[in-house]
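Deviations from the work plan: none for this task. Representative record:
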Amino acid sequence: MIEIRSLSAKLGGAPVLHDIDATIAPGRVTALVGPNGAGKSTLLAVIGQLLKASAGSVTLDGADLSDMPPPERARRLAILRQNTTITPRLTVADLVGFGRYPHSGGRLDDADLRIVDACLAELDLSALAGRHLDTISGGQRQRALIAMTLAQTPRALLLDEPLNNLDLGHVRRVMEVARTRARAGVAVVVVLHDLSIAARFADALIALKAGRVFAAGRPDEVITGPTLSALYDTPIDVHEVAGSRVVLT
Amino acid sequence: MSRPLLVTGLALAAASAVFLTLGARGDWSFVLAFRGEKLAALIVVGSAVAASTVAFQTVTGNRILTPAIMGFDALYVLIQTLLVFGLGGVGLAALDARVLFGAETALMLGAALVLFAWLLRRGADLNRLVLTGIIFGTLFRSLSGLLNRMIDPADFAVVQSASFARFNSVDDRLLWPAAAVTLLALAALLARHARLDVVALGRDAATALGVDHDREARRVMVLIAVLVSVSTALVGPVVFFGLLVSALTHAVAGTWRHAVLLPLSALLASVVLVAGQTLFERVLSLQTSVSVVIEGLGGAVFLILILRRAAR
């Protein structure tokens, strides 16, 4: 369980997050939603210790993440940032293999390789395993980056806009993988802009606005016309189609 | 063992054999000992410059930088200029080479460590560190230029000759201490190869994978400072050679693993220096320092890398 208490953070000296309190339970997919600049990516970066909080704390299963040694933290928590660029000329399998670094220290044994293969297969990347990252599409690269975080076999999985560049089939696949991991006891947090996807695949939502928690709860509590209209400052309708909520602007 | 490592290792063995024996006459024990020391100097300096450049490019995430950009060469030339200014060319020649070597190494290393400690403790990132190094380098060059205008022409020639690396006039008393320090620093760098692989992914990715990027970068920068200080104090400033060898290494290595990149760069640099010195000294019988030509080639590689980037 990830517990966020009185968390504030600044970017370049400017306050971005203000006094955030939230609990992210294991076994669930929690979608982080909100308008541009609401602080979603900053919150994820602070949870993942890529950015220091100016106040407050984040704990994972009771342990303060800021006090945890980096290798131990990386064994328990994986984070995918949006727009990650990788400069070395790696193959897809090399990149996913890096996900085992916190466990293997760079020497992959048979068990590590089996996990890498499983993560490649999970994201439909087996056929691309030997291809270099600069020879595949943006969507394929995005899946490879997601597979790397899965290969860390973490207790908490933080994905910042993982659906960027993905086609509809792989959007569904990635969200199903997130759900499968959640069902296995992982606390999964996904930053999403597509609220229909959030309504369909998330078990809980946290909506941020101007660096504060605007709303939190189950999809049927947060994904409503009035709440979303106030969140995004624009008229939004929510319709029920085939048992799933569809958000229309 | 990786194929490029094996081939380059064999090429170095062949180049070394030719360097030691080509055109040799007379007492073989003297010839081998005399040329052996020169060979060792070439390998020590080549390895230090190459491995430090590969590591520097990894931690800065930039393939067109070399540690020389931090101003080591400029500081070395300034030290030489100050000594010539204060003692004169004859006075400098009379100084004990070991004391001079120790003092120069300590000064360059000390300056680098003070800069790292001062800037990194204040939370500056590596880009700011590199920029500050460039500014100090410019300052040192300006000071050297000012002093050069005030010394007599004969002394100026001494400073000029110290401004280029001299691979064939290494003092044998300095070679073995320099080799020992270089070997230790290279071993320490190689021991971090797996972490360097992760650091090469960038700060965020490395941090997410459990490597404290900033701390690792600081430690590697200290090792780089040791390697560059020792090699510069031993033979003089080398600016573009590291760039040439690093580009060659990445072109032939076929891997991103520093377990291969670091030793391969050291071997390639040694091959280039030993083969170049053999060609200039034994085949063409030229007195021109091989460093001038190699630096020219390195400069050309630098321009090609810049133009390639601009074309992208």
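Residues 164 and 237 of chain B are 6 Å apart (CA to CA).
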